[in-house]
Amino acid sequence: MLALVATLTFGFTSCSDSIPEDSLYTYEAEMLSDYLRNHDDFSLFARIVEKSGKMDLFSAYGRYTCFAPTNAAVNEFLSSHNLSSVEELSAEDCDTLASTMVLDELYTMTDLLQCNGFTNLNLLGRSLKLQEVPIVIQDPSLGETTVTTFIVNGSGQIVYELANDSVENGIVHPVDKVVKSSSALLPDVIKRDPSITLFALCLELTGLDRQMMRRVDESYNYKDWEYLEGLYPSDNHKNWCQVPRTRKYGYTAFCVTDEILNHYSEYDTDYGKDILTWEDLYDYACTVYPEGAGQSYYSKDLDALKDERNPLHKLIAYHLLDRKAAYAKLYTDCTIYHGVGGSNPTEYYSTMNPLSTLKVEKVYAENRFKGDSQANELYLNRMYDPARPNLKMRGAIVSQNVIAEMADEQECENGFYYYIDRLIDYGQQTRDKVFNNRIRMDLYTFWPELMNNDIRSVKTDSHDAPEDKNSTPKNFIFPPGYFDNVECEEDGDFIYQGCRNYYWSYEGDEFNLRSDNNSYDVTFRLPSVPTRQYQIRLGFCLIPSRGIAQFYVDGMPQGIPLDMRSTGWVDRVGWKGLSSMGKEEAEQNKKDLHNQGWYHGPKSVRNFPGSPVHTDAELSTSNSSAFCDNTGTVRRVIYTGQLSGDKPHTIRIRSVWADGGAELMLDYIEIVPKSVYGIDEAETGEDDL
Are residues 542 and 492 in the same domain? Predict the structure, then answer.
């Protein structure tokens, strides 16, 4: 009954809302410390807390959530470590255990259902992971019913019937196992995996393991920026925008197993050699990165291996991302039609090898881009297009899971790691084949901070009210300095609108620039591409409420300012929807637009209408509209010229007209080599996808 009352009482709280004291069902003046001492089934954990020196802390007023292990759970933990009693644990061990299982904020079971993880860290300064688990219980009123409980950090499961036990200074969720410490960082986890010992050794030899230790920016406090939160106008509505609650760092490693490396001649017949030692892997790296041979940094010397120009260093660094990427978030199906006449969802990410980019592609069977690849697999650096057969490249398949004994640690405090079935690189062959193609990048992929702090979520189960602060997905406004590679004037607002598959936005989300002072100015770095001639195009949506901005590439102004207002646009440029025309008329209309620097929206990108509600999996040609037929969803050429792969390039966007808070939309960017955009013949030219 106490648990039921507590559940009902807390049912209307949110992840970080303050809970009025009179809304809590509490034991009279019983603190967390009293609770642990007064309940026999937690006597062993109480002793752990006493030895840790934290019992006095739990006697003071605060807002704690405690995942208290039962005596049976503590005994199981002791037995697994060949210990007979709590007294054999050191004070330091007890401090780690106690601090792991306590958060400095209240989280009811309802909160846990509503939140995507914890906003607050535990007393060790680490985040805890949650896994939802459906269980069947006997309810006095409903009989047998299914409810949800949680496994914390892949170990302790919350005992549903005992959850939500509240005390004066917090709430207790008993767990059936001791919650594992989340203190391990990604390099430590990789070193513990017996399947990837060679990769782990090379991480250490190159010093890249020490570049993957950051967890969170302790100097960032969202409360310093809460004054930015509020309703911001966008088109004909307003969006509630919040500031990010955290500024975490994260990493992802794509690791080739020892089994594959030791038999590499069977997998890569062009190379034809097995890789048994780190020296063998260095020799392989030299074939991929011959640049610099003979230089002091180009050797097997231990100091040279730590130089980012060293071939082994470059090879290993290319397998690493500076973002914590869950498998399902490495790509998205939102707005991407992959059926007949469509294309595969594809993303591009900068890697930890400086000035290099990685292609990630989810392969589906229905469209023309499958070839002989395996359907429904995620590939790295794959290239297949029947129209350009000379550019074919197999790439590497990403395994979603690791070996069973490491499954609980595949996601750790600051990252994920995955197995891949081939080595990947940014060598000349990769640059000539994989990146000699239209490179379409959603702005979301530009900045690791977005993925590291769970900024993107997709809403498909309802058409929400974006002006509601409690709606999902969330919209965000970013404080100055939040992004490492963005410079933004302080009087300008840099806003992210969360993914909605009924928006006229590629992958459902978009960025907006606006200002109450009618002025914004933002500069950011482009992902690196191989040296050659390119077009840079901006994909966006024309709307009457938009503004006008001047674009710069590497500080140089590009053409006349871009007017994003749709008023009179169709008559001015002669736009017609592609599907409304025959082949010859469509080709002529495309040429007319191209001559003016405009492109239709992509044919493979579609959005649902305002109603009814659809999931991304339901996307088809019969229930959605293609961007190529929408007068608003267009692409504009903002630069034509040389880009160098040996140096970073920047885009600057400065407002020319932004009266009344008129916004500029940044949706996606295409970097298109001349080998693609420079061909005019319909049979061999750039496709409409």
Answer: yes
493 and 392 in a single domain? The answer is no
Percentages of the chain per state (helix, strand, coil), in multiples of 5: 30, 25, 45
3-class SS of residue 585: helix
CA separation for the pair 606, 336 (Å, rounded): 6
Of 612 and 504, which is predicted with more confidence?
A: 504
Query: Which three-class secondary structure state does DSSP give residue 552?
Result: strand
Q: Contact, 6 vs 25, CB < 8 A? A: yes
Q: Please, which residues bridge with residue 556 across strands?
A: 553
| CB distance 62 to 33 below 8 Å | no
Q: How far apart are CA 497 and CA 485, in angstroms?
A: 20
What's the pLDDT tens digit per position in 319-343?
999 999 999 999 999 999 999 999 9
Residues 460 and 430 in one domain: no
Residues 196 and 190: beta-carbon distance below 8 Å: yes
Environment class of 199 (CB within 10 Å of its CB; exposed 0-12, middle 13-18, buried 19+): buried
- Give CA–CA dist 634/540, Å, rounded: 6
CATH number of the domain that 226 lies in?
A: 2.60.120.260
User: What is the rounded distance in angstroms from the CA atom of residue 357 to the CA atom of residue 348?
Assistant: 6
Q: Which residue is associated with the tokens 């229905």?
A: 366
Do 198 and 278 form a contact (C-beta atoms < 8 A)?
A: yes
R_g of the chain, CA atoms, integer Å: 27
- Please report which helix (H) or strand (E) contains residue 130, including its range: strand 130-139
Q: Are residues 381 and 512 in the same domain?
A: no
Contact call for residues 235 and 541 (beta carbons, < 8 A): no
Q: Per residue in 357-381, pLDDT tens?
A: 999 999 999 999 999 999 999 999 9
Sign of the C-alpha dihedral computed for residues 179, 180, 182 and 186 taken in this order: negative
- Three-state DSSP at 93 gives helix
Amino acid, single-letter form, for residue 379: Y
| Residue 57, both tokens | 């802390």
